[in-house]
Design a protein that fits this description.
The chain has six helices and nine strands. With about 200 residues, it is α+β, with helices and mostly antiparallel strands.
């Protein structure tokens, strides 16, 4: 990501970020970036061409439903984001919604407005875009590697489990509204997600 332009603090500005009045707004996706990333096979973070491996930077809840709101990146770029992004490395940080451009909307799907405190890099060979309420989401393929981070470092098993457990009530409420079958499916998907947490996490 060294070739990317820098903001006033000297931080690389990810490829997807919108520039507004000559300044990057890290909260806003640039026009057409999602379509360009998918159509041209570009890294969401650096804009370079992706290879066989696709790395999704997601939260623990996305490990359960295996859905991402953003296209994939290079593995190294994803690791950099997990180690350097202020929102991802600061669990107490909340989303700043004030003074967003008027035309800015919510991402596709149902957004969970919390900082999970843990970031998951989901590395796979495949993914599938699909249409959802408000735009496009991405069904991630079977993982070949999962990397868990908290505060910019490898996350402990306890931190990962705590983040999953704190977010589950949100998914349970949605599943209960859909009926018993949805609840059972959520329980199965949660067990699959827990199995991805390395027993030997530091």
């Amino acid at each position: 990501m060294a070739h990317l332009p820098r903001d006033k603090h000297g931080r690389p500005v990810p490829w997807f970020v919108a520039w507004i009045d000559g300044q990057p707004d890290f909260r806003v996706i640039g026009p057409g970036k999602i379509a360009d990333a998918v159509r041209c096979g570009l890294c969401w973070l650096c804009g370079g061409t992706l290879g066989s491996w696709k790395a999704f930077v997601i939260g623990p809840m996305c490990a359960i439903n295996r859905v991402s709101a953003e296209p994939p990146s290079h593995r190294d770029c994803a690791v950099y984001a997990a180690q350097a992004c202020p929102f991802l490395t600061t669990p107490a940080m909340t989303r700043r919604d004030r003074h967003l451009p008027a035309e800015t909307g919510d991402p596709a799907g149902t957004m969970i407005r919390r900082n999970p405190g843990v970031t998951l890099i989901w590395i796979t060979r495949s993914y599938k875009p699909f249409r959802a309420q408000g735009g496009i989401l991405f069904q991630v393929g079977q993982p070949v590697e999962t990397l868990w981070y908290a505060e910019g470092r490898p996350a402990t098993r306890a931190e990962v489990l705590a983040s999953i457990e704190s977010g589950l009530p949100i998914l349970h409420a949605q599943a209960e509204a859909e009926g018993p079958d949805a609840v059972r499916e959520l329980e199965q998907m949660t067990d699959q997600a827990r199995a991805l947490i390395p027993a030997g996490s530091p």
